[in-house]
Amino acid sequence: MPAVFTYVCQHDVMRFAQAAVRVWGCQMDFFHPEVTAKAGIEALRSFLISIGMPKNFTQLGAKEEDIPYLVNTLCNGTGRGGSISGFVTLYEEDCRNIYQLML
Known about the structure:
The protein is mainly alpha-helical. 60% of the residues lie in helices and 4% in strands. The protein has 6 helices and 2 strands. It has a two-stranded antiparallel sheet. Strand 1 (83-84) and strand 2 form a beta hairpin. Helix 2 (13-24) packs across helix 3 (33-50) and helix 5 (67-76) packs across helix 6 (92-102). The longest helix is centred in the middle third of the chain and has 18 residues, at 33-50. The mean pLDDT is 93.
C-alpha cells in the first residue's frame, strides 16, 4: 500500500496529510501538506515492516520481469478492460509504475 499511496497522493494531498496526522501522529505542515502526507506514508511503511511484512517485491522473490504478468492479471482479470477502480482509477501504465516503485 505505501507504493500505491505514494503514486496517488497528489490526487488529494490533504486527505493523505489528514490521515498522517490522525492515524500516525505526524505534525501537520500547513505550508507543505505533501511533506506531512509523505511522513504518514513512511510511518505506514515502517509499521508494516515492524509487523514482519515484506519491505518490497524483492523480499517476496519477485523480479522486474514479473511485472507484465502481474499487471495483466490485475488489470485484465477484473473484467473492467484494463483498469481498476478505487480512490483513483488506475490503468495498466499506472499499475506498472506502482509495481516499479515496489521493486
